[in-house]
């Protein structure tokens, strides 16, 4: 679409405002906002809504909470206030699945702490044979999860949603010894650690923080996963690079083998390096 001089001026103004507000990838955010708000026929309304969105972004509201959609690994997902916005970090899980895993045909996969369902649905897209179960506790996040699952079923991408609290040690008992792969991008930031306002102020606390060292829920997941996994099943957890030694220790303590931390700058962003630890039961 070609822009009038008025549009060009408004885009330039937005570029300056976003930059002054400390937004780290101004061009990428600007592209999403222009795409969402400015490329419309009613120009006056479009420009007003575009600038309101720019001001919200300058107040560090996460982009996904403004535009209400995100493309994750080619999947058009609905997101918004109250749910964690998936990050490219998590695509390292899918790269590992594509290149290194040996998940048997027709087996069951758990995506724990599923949020809007990005990780589980991207697995279901590449492996339609798998029975993918997305597990989420928070009611608002669960609503986005159900919505995305229902939406994407129209593209023949199938997954199930299960609302449960992983802190309840019996919550997933029905999966005992029946799962070939558990994946999770859990909350892992230590309480009282200050992070970018997009996450500290505007994401649900439960989606970001987890105890004094950030490892409360990860400890639970590593212990519980041992119960759900079949022999030779895999556990894959996304976390911060500073946590790698502690997390490998947790895996080893629970008897996992082939324990390895993988990092990939290609999926990293301003929040840090993309990091996962994998282990085999
Ligand atoms: C970091 S977010 C990740 C969401 C999603 N996997 C993604 O990458 O977009 C962590 C998610 O864990 C969920 N969660 C936190 N505590 C939980 C618990 N005790 N049981 C189940 N889910 C929980 C949060 O509601 C949040 O949706």
From TrEMBL:
InterPro entries: DNA_methylase_N6_adenine_CS, HemK-like, N5-glutamine_MTase, SAM-dependent_MTases_sf, Small_mtfrase_dom. It catalyses: L-glutaminyl-[peptide chain release factor] + S-adenosyl-L-methionine = N(5)-methyl-L-glutaminyl-[peptide chain release factor] + S-adenosyl-L-homocysteine + H(+). It holds the Pfam family MTS. GO terms for biological process: methylation. Its EC number is 2.1.1.297. The keyword Nucleotidyltransferase does not apply. One of its GO terms (molecular function) is nucleic acid binding. The lineage of its organism: Bacteria, Pseudomonadati, Pseudomonadota, Gammaproteobacteria, Enterobacterales. It comes from Xenorhabdus bovienii (Xenorhabdus nematophila subsp. bovienii). Transmembrane segments: none annotated. The keyword Transferase applies. Residues 91-189 form the Methyltransferase small domain. This is peptide chain release factor N(5)-glutamine methyltransferase. Keywords: Methyltransferase, S-adenosyl-L-methionine, Transferase.
